[in-house]
UniProtKB/TrEMBL annotation:
PROSITE patterns xrefs: ULP_PROTEASE
Gene3D superfamilies per the UniProt record, alphabetical: Adenoviral Proteinase, Chain A (3.40.395.10)
Annotated Pfam families: Peptidase_C48 (PF02902)
Keywords on record: Hydrolase, Protease
Domain of life: Eukaryota
Domain Ubiquitin-like protease family profile: 79-265
Name assigned to this protein: Ubiquitin-like protease family profile domain-containing protein
Transmembrane regions: none
InterPro entries linked: Papain-like_cys_pep_sf, Peptidase_C48_C
Presence of keyword Amino-acid biosynthesis: no
UniProt GO BP: proteolysis
Length: 275
């Protein structure tokens, strides 16, 4: 490695060394830290192998052994993180809003690559988009303001069936992830809740959902009704449906199950994950 022009030197144990050697040390320390992360991940798998199926343990261990340490992560839009960041997904910490956006991006890529027919008319949205709908529907004045024009335009696309499916994962009470799919063809709001299975009827919002899902679902209904009025067509009232989803047996799987429910809905050959 050539010494840069006018480079300074550093002295280590009375030996003068070129300044660029610092970058070599930094790289070595980075790899050393990453090795610790990987070793911790493999140790975690070994400690929990009795709690997880042998096939899943083997799959994870094989993946850990094959990944290139210094490689960048592929599959996420504009990703700059190294593979060391993947250890984040071995714990419940992988259920933040930013992670939900990553899963949405991956499903979006799958739909773009393999989607045919109706799948080309799917709009996958982030949890923040749902929050904006709730904010917009707080009052007519807010809804019709300039800042929420894009939400009104999306409603018109559903009304005109330019967009056939409006789907995503929403956060409820800052503690739970719930999947939803608004189907413009069947005029159905499908909800997938891994904690609370319920019987859905056409008479209205199921009692089980009233205590914590009423706010987002009522916002959806208001939004869709306003879109009908804006389009100056009567439209059809939306009813409710159950989105098939795995029922969780712990306190942290809701986000994974919600994302899996969306993927299984759009790709019927996929199966729901086991609890």
């Amino acid at each position: 490695m050539p010494v840069p022009t006018n480079a300074s030197s550093i002295i280590v144990s009375n030996v003068y060394l070129p300044l660029w050697l610092v970058n070599v040390w930094k790289a070595w320390l980075w790899v050393h830290d990453l090795h610790i992360l990987w070793a911790t991940a493999i140790e975690w798998v070994a400690d929990h192998e009795n709690e997880i199926s042998a096939a899943h343990v083997h799959t994870v261990q094989t993946a850990l052994d094959k990944l290139i340490w210094a490689h960048k992560i592929h599959g996420f839009c504009d990703s700059t993180a190294g593979v060391g960041a993947l250890t984040h997904y071995l714990s419940p910490n992988c259920l933040a809003t930013t992670d939900m956006d990553h899963y949405r991006e991956l499903l979006h890529e799958e739909l773009d690559k393999y989607g045919e027919g109706d799948l080309e008319h799917v709009q996958l949205v982030s949890p923040d988009y749902v929050n904006r709908i709730i904010q917009a529907c707080a009052s007519p004045e807010i809804y019709w303001s300039r800042n929420y024009r894009y939400i009104r335009e999306m409603g018109l696309k559903l009304n005109g069936q330019i967009t056939l499916y409006f789907a995503g994962v929403m956060n409820v009470n800052n503690s739970h992830w719930v999947a939803f799919i608004i189907d413009a063809k069947s005029h159905t709001i499908n909800i997938g809740d891994s904690q609370l299975p319920c019987t859905v009827s056409n008479r209205g919002l199921p009692d089980q959902w009233h205590h914590y899902l009423e706010k987002p679902i009522c916002a959806f209904q208001f939004w869709l009704q306003q879109s009908d009025k804006a389009a100056k067509c009567p439209g059809t009232a939306y009813t409710y449906g159950n989105l098939p989803i795995t029922q969780q047996c712990d306190g942290s799987s809701c986000g994974i199950f919600a994302q899996n429910a969306l993927a299984a809905y759009f790709f019927p050959t996929l199966t729901l994950v086991a609890p």
